[in-house]
Amino acid sequence: xxxxxxxxxxxxxxxxxxxxxxxxxxxxxxxxxxxxxxxxxxxxxxxxxxxxxxxxxxxxxxxxxxxxxxxxxxx
Length: 75
Hints:
By secondary structure, this protein is mostly helical. The chain is about 45% helix and about 0% strand. The protein has helices at about 5-10, 15-30, 30-35, 50-55. The longest helix has 14 residues, at about 15-30. The N and C termini lie far apart (about 65 Å).
């Protein structure tokens, strides 16, 4: 987690976020920001790049254009 994301999380003050932060603190005696600042998250492939997800979203299969595939050589 970089400092920009930690600060963005600190500034989030809506009721749902505050309740989540308070619950986390009560369970772990540590703020969410402190917990996340000591973590690293490896980058993962976005879900929309998986073929199964692309088919669910309606994307058709990509095929190469092969103009000579049905070409018959004249004798």
